[in-house]
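[SOLVED] Need 3D model of a two-part complex

Original post:
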Amino acid sequence: MNASVPAAAAAAAASETLVSIEGLKVHFPITSGVVFQRKVGAVYAVDGIDLSILEGETLGLVGESGCGKSTTGRAILQLIRPTAGRVLYEGGDLAHLRGAKLRRQRKRMQMIFQDPYASLNGRMTVGDIVGEPLLVHKVVTRRQRGARVRELLKTVGINPNTLNRYPHEFSGGQRQRIGIARALAIEPNFIVCDEPISALDVSIRAQIINLLQQLQREFGLTYLFIAHDLSVVRHISDRVAVMYLGRIVELAANADLYGQPLHPYTQALLSAVPIPDPTAEEQRRAVVLTGDVPSPVDPPAGCHFHPRCPAMRYGLCDVQTPELREVRPGHWAACHLITDDDYPFIRAGEGDLAEAQSAAALGAVTGPSATAADGAAADGGEPA
Amino acid sequence: MGIDRDTLLRLTDLTVDFSSQEGVVHAVDRVSFSVAPGELVGLVGESGCGKSVTAWSILGLIRMTTNATVGGKIEFEGRDLLALPEKEVREVRGRDISMIFQDPVTSLNPVLTIERLVTEGLETHLGISRDEAVARSIELLRQVGIPQAEQRIKDYPHQFSGGMRQRVMIAIALSCNPKLLLADEPTTALDVTIQAQILRLMKQLSAEYDAAVIVITHDLGVVAGMCRRILVMYAGRIVESGPAKPLFAHPHHPYTMGLLKSVPRLDEPRGVTLESIEGLPPDLAHLPPGCAFAPRCYLVTDECWQAVPELQPTDEGRRSACFHADQLVAAAARVGT
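Solution:
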């Protein structure tokens, strides 16, 4: 949990660090009892991450559901208060700001949400939705507001004459554009995009990605782009961080991460992404990981990934937590098995082997049963 | 009915209209295709293109909705399912044709144990005793990769993770040895590493059980690795069909072309901007008079606004519903296959 983390040594040394996250933890308590609530456990959603976001870059944050990527995004904006750690924005710590001081800082940062149906108030007109941040932050007078809203709608490709309409009159893609206009309203320089395209139709996704990229060029925006789609993240990001169960397991420049993924999890993840080409699909073999992502209520000891890792070494990976360290210039990874000149290369065969031993292997590798939290992701059950 | 040995299912001009406040919604419009025994077919399209309604029609679920009008023929092993009385359809549904639904969380009854969920179909359709059904269920669960199946069978769905629930659903779907399996977005709710597990499992089991599978999805990547033949739907119609490899390499319909180009691929160099399809999918209650894709198409001419293009043969085993398919065929020939 060193303070001088990733970005400091990143290749793009010329860029200034805009947001710096140090030892960020977000734990959600699990309580029991009605009146006298006792804390009986915690969901370790984000469990100590260090990350720097450089000015003007797009940092992709990928991982499977429940890995803590959205919580990280929200904790940076202080929409969820971190349990521990610091979030430095232009050098000042946001985690300790309250009230007006926090609001003043928030003017610089905005969020684009995943679900364009749930994130716009259905009782407000589009003009009011896009104009609200302008009033809250007192950026313009009421009289100037209309003109500014029209300008914003035009920027994101929505007909400005529709500002008296309601969200339900728009399609998913158009609503996402409205959400983007709202985020742009107060001219932020940092935007957290939380799965901005995953709720949209395939033919609309490219439109929104292109719009986000165009806006970045136009306004010099910095993005934290949270997504589970690795192909999209590769397309849009300058650097990419991979999360697994509350921790960052790998962080590198786009070309390095996709060209030579070092962490076994990243390798498996990339090999599992389907490619829309039957010929290419025939030639490659996916590493099929056995088991599911364990529950963040009771994460495995040592390296969180060790129960599913084909390269796992007993006595090391299941005991010691690997630190995120710079294993190649600008390429950070958290794995005991990565050395200066070697790394665990996961071949497709190893995953298959594990799958062949299915019942026994699955029982052993999947995490503890979820009796503690009903409905939480768990299977495996007690060992027979 | 003039159906041959090589055809398990044949749809002829399937049309499904829903009456709504905004007028008649043409959800499925004259869809025709056939599926051979054991064949893996991919039905691809965006939300609202009619792919799920097509699947529900095959399963005989659409006839239960009061505001739907169904036309055409759905012949399964030579019998037109649309003409059969409900009682006979019920014998086919769940036994010969079964379905895997998209959402493993809501499609399993939460108050029933896994045992009850899996044995229900076995007892209803195969008429075997309770003990036999339980034994068979445990075997099925083991086959789909659920560890400690004998114990887990007593659990309720909420005690399983998403991936494991989808495995349970596959076990239920396979329980009566179906000849046709409809998989409606089987991996959309799952993570990518789990998706790889489930797709592999489905492919394996389809071969083992010699069951034909129609995979319904919006994700071109999912069908690319799994299906031999692809059907692309847009606004209620099939716009392109053909064997997977040539179809993905050189699409013969501008919509397929646009879809393929608008998704970034991991195995290709990074582009600066994506080639997006402009505009929005049409409102199915107010379709344009000509080709439904015309407003978004880069090959559009006057002709496209006048008449609806029929699905015509373009190449070996391939069909396209586009007046300008020949341009795409010619372009593909220049590049060479």
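Edit: The first strand of chain A starts at residue 17 and ends at 32.
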